[in-house]
Structure formats: structure tokens, C-alpha cells
Please model this.
Amino acid sequence: MTRVRRPAVAGLFYPDDADELTATVARALDVAVPDAEPPPKAMIVPHAGYVYSGPTAGVAYARLGRLRDRIAHVVLLGPAHRVWVDGIAVSGADAFVTPLGLVSIDDALRRRVLAHPAVVTDDRAHAREHSLEVQLPFLQRTLDRFTLLPLAVGDARPEDVAAVLDLVWGGPETLVLVSSDLSHYHDYATARAQDDRTAAAIVARTPDAVSDDDACGARPIRGLLLAAQRHGLGVRLLDLRSSGDTAGDRDRVVGYGAFALSS
Model:
């Protein structure tokens, strides 16, 4: 029998109706992309409800339009919000499902990362985790066919995250995504100042300058930045805003950033 991970936040973070979801994602993707821009090997994208972070996510995912028939594998990392993970948890499911259909899990890549001692199979970490799930409709609308390796990152060292990424780095057929929001629940001006510092650290590829208070996905971000150093990738800031710019008030905001990594 096929083991399917069902949606946990459809109807909450994003529409649970397929037509409405398609239209919502299409609006977010309606972004101009410079012709001369290099294709991304990796990206950092936010993961709040689409009304809040969807515009920033769309700026990143619009970069995949020209790669839709090239990317065949997506390695997706995000923080484990719901369940404590000592290391990195991969799902044991055969597929994840959204209102737009099934996304097959890449068993070959899963077996490859399970060779690393920091990686375990733990479906509890994935059952209610939104940071990975909210990325899937964007991927389903921007790529033709792809398999997914979903990794929920808990208490993992940057060196371990980078080593796991090295196992599945691949070539241009493989995209690495880190799902993370930035600062949480400061006033608008305080959040912007903190997010500016965090964005500068990410662009400078300085993992130690990104703290757990700067981003909920700081641990996968630090690992990706270490891998970026090893693979000679530069980082571009694509978009930086907060819920105070989109759909929330400015007294208590969450920051969102979109980044592209390329050679």
C-alpha cells in the first residue's frame, strides 16, 4: 500500500480548493525575472500563511519558470516546529499530497541520506509540520515533474546539514530549498532592522552570524550556507518584507526573506 502524508494546513495556511489554490499561487508568481539572472541551485523561502508570506515566496519561485523541465529532484529542508528532532528527520511516506495532487518521495535520495548518522526516519516530525507542506503547491505549479526529499531539521549541527546536502547535491537537475521565516513578533521597525542584519549575513555566507533568534530555520540555513561555501555559490537577496507589509498590523510582525544561491 502507498503511504501518503496528508495535508495538515490546507484550508489554514493556503486554500484547500484546487482551483482557488492554483489562482492564489499564480498571483504570487506574477513577478518579472531579469533575463540575465543565473539559474538558482538553491533558494531560501518563507513558510507562513500565503496571505502573509506568499508574495515573498512567489518572488523566489518565479525563478523556476525557466527551469520547469530541467529540475527533477527537490531537496526540501525546514525546521521541525511540532516534534523534537535530535538531528534531521526524513519522512517514511511514499508521497505527500496537496489539493493539487501527489508528490512522490525520492526513495533513492532518502536511502542515501539515511547513511548519515544525523538522519533518522520519523513521520511524527512530518505529520503536522507546515514549513515543508506550504512549499509544495508552489513547486507543483512551477515544475513539470519532480520527486521530493523532505527533511525536518531539529537539533542539527551546520556541519551535519551540509554533509547531508553533499550526499544529494547532484547537478542542475536537483534543487535545494530551505524553508524559513525570519524574525518573530517584534514591532515593525525592530523586525526590519534585525531582518536587514540577518539578510546581510546570509548574503555574506556567514553561518555563525545567523542565530536561532534570527530565523526559525536558522539551523538548515546555516548548513546551506556552509554547503554554499564548499560549492562556490553566491547568494542574492530577492525580497525582504514582513507581515506588516502584507496582511498584518505593525505591532507584532514576522519577517520574510527570499534568497537565491547560484554559481
User: Anything to note?
Assistant: The two ends are 41 Å apart (CA to CA). The chain has ten helices and twelve strands.
